[in-house]
Amino acid sequence: MRRYLVGGAVRDRLLRRPVAERDWVVTGATPEEMIALGYRPVGKDFPVFLHPQTQEEHALARTERKNGRGYRGFTIHTDPGVTLEDDLIRRDLTVNAMAEDDDGTLIDPHGGRVDLEARVLRHVSAAFAEDPVRVLRIARFHSRYASLGFRIADETMALMRQMVDSGEVDHLTAERVWKETERALMQPQPSIYFTTLRECGALKRLMPEVDALFGVPQPPKHHPEIDTGVHTMLTIDHAANIEAPLTVRVAALCHDFGKALTPEHLLPSHYGHEQSGVPLVEAFCTRLKVPNDCRELALQVCREHLLVHQARELTPGTLMQLLERLDALRRPQRFEEFLTACDCDARGRTGLENRDYPQPNYLRAARRRIALVEPASVTADGYLGAAIGVELRNRRLKVLKELRETPAA
Question: What is the pTM of this model?
Answer without folding.
Answer: 0.89
